[in-house]
Amino acid sequence: MESKLITAKSEPLWNTNNKVISIVCALIVLLFALPLFGLNSFYLHLFIMIFMHAVMAQSWNVIAGFSGQISLGHGAFFGIGAYATSFFYMQYGITPWISIFFGMFISAIFAVLIGIPMLRLSGHYFAIATLLIGISFQVVFQRWDLVGAASGLWVTMTPEDSWIALQFHSSKIPYYYVFLIFFLITFFAVWLLSRSKLGYRLRAVRDDPQAALSLCINVSNYKIIAYVISAMIMAPMGSLFAQYILIIDPDRVFNIEISIIVLLITVLGGIGNVWGPIIGASILIPISEYSRIYLGGTGGAIDLIFYGLILMIICIFKPNGLISFIPKDILERKKQR
Amino acid sequence: MKILSVENLSRSFGGIKANDNISFQLEEGDILGIIGPNGAGKSTLFDLITGYTKADTGIVKFFDKNIFGLSPDKISNLGVGRTFQKLKPFADQTLLENVMIGAFVKEKNIKKARDRALEIIDFVDLLEKRHHFAKELSTGQRKRLEMARAMAIEPKLLLMDEVTGGVDQKTIPGLVDLIKKLKKTGVTIITIEHNINIIMEISDNVLALDQGKSIAFGSPREIQKNKQVIDSYLGTFDAA
Which of A54, A121, B33, B86 is at a distance of 20 to 30 A from A36, taking alpha carbons? Predict the structure, then answer.
């Protein structure tokens, strides 16, 4: 028996599948090399949107997938991030590289302020409350003159491409790399989180809050921590998006659709799994972009119909998301039985 | 040394007194068995001691510290572990991960927490099942999982709610042996049991409840002879 225990202790902490590591490394290299193959503007935009939405979905994955709280107002943090960089750049000339952190900080503050009362609610009550919070941000910004009210902010354009101002007019390639790097950083940060003590404890809160309490876990505090982390991941995407399009308004960056799409992406890919948002974004975003191109304004809702159909099929046949098509012992940390 | 002192603990739900002026004391290292018919208030008493339900009145002292009104996480942090009547495993996580979550209370390092969790899983004889999801385990195995998880916080006092409830007859002796093995580690135990033979076998003292009231407290032999206990519980048990 003792020898079995020694054997068990000698097992590696994680199921490090060398094949998966090799594939991931190859994909990363490929993603860095892709622009060199002369990707046209549309494909660069497509990848930028995939990276951005994968990060946004990863943010939602932290609060919903790891700690089990369904937030329907996560777009608020995207909007805060967008306005933070644009406002501080236009008013004070602060480079977006710094104001990205302002956006993260402000989002974190709001996550705490919202989280303390709201996370006392559970299940659908929390979801409804966050939905209303998300909408209220949009309403407030529509009426707030300091940030341009309903007209929003038109970011002052630099005459030339500028890394300091994070503006690139001649090519989308720099944006591609900026979004890619944020995407990779977020992925590895959330991957580390999922394997940390905090990750374990968040999953305990998700699976059974009552049992978690019996293991010295302050459930309310951990939900707030997850909400803050989630908000801080979402905000930089708003900031980068603002720098990407250079025009922001409340209807665009606080839109309820943002909160819904991150949910759809995560559920489609696989909730509670770090790979889920990436898989979900890689499928839904191309559908969205292609339907927008081929159907134009007249087919504005076709992508949503596709989403609905895909989601229904997934919920019926693969409730754990597309990630469940991949054998568990390949991606997850479960060892051989 | 007294590890737990409960004085005049009461809790009502509407007009029903679930616990009515319950008082008892528990010595360190002992096993206290709690018996009583369904609805006697046994699980409510657990919830009051561990902070899951707020008592209306009373005092609960863990060693010399009054823990009345503290939240469950703070009480467990002081060294009070518990299992649940309705099992609450983290279903989508493996047995090892379940126990590791408990082990993180004492071990901050993941490797050390994993090793500690493995030792505890070995203690409850489930080492072979360590990588199985909790939802894949049998009821008896999940009972052991809950005990292992509670032990992982290294409690001084462990409250176990119906460890042998809902498992087949073949599984019961193993669970009883496990409780005895646990006692040898020095942990103080309060256990709720319906199986009177088990209570008599393992307990140093027995508290009998009926309709929220404490009707007897004493050694298993004393309880077996107590007329009120026989009338309200043992008699019913025998008749059944």
Answer: A54
| pLDDT for res A297 | 60
Is B118 in Cβ contact with A200 (below 8 Å)?
A: no
Tally of domains within chain B: 1
Instruction: Tell me the C-alpha distance between A318 and A312, whole Å.
Output: 10
Q: Where are the alpha helices (DSSP H) in chain B?
A: 42-50, 72-78, 95-103, 110-123, 139-151, 172-184, 196-202, 220-225, 227-229, 235-239
The tokens 């009054």 sit on which residue? B66
CA A308 to chain centroid, in Å, comes to: 20
Structure token pair of residue A156: 């002052």
The C-alpha of B82 sits at a distance from chain A's nearest C-alpha, in angstroms, of 7
- Provide the number of CB pairs (under 8 Å) joining chain A to chain B: 93
Residue B223, domain member (yes or no): yes
Residue B232 located in a structural domain: yes
Structure tokens at B159: 């409250």
Closest to A51 measured CA to CA, from A161, A187, A170: A187
Window B:140-199, CB contacts with A under 8 Å: 149-150, 152-153
Q: Is residue B41 part of a domain?
A: yes
Reported as a single tens digit per residue, the pLDDT across A107-140 is 999 999 999 988 888 778 888 999 999 999 999 9
Q: Is residue A335 very low, low, confident or very high in pLDDT (cuts 50, 70, 90)?
A: very low
Residue B72: its chain A contacts at CB < 8 A?
Answer: 213-214
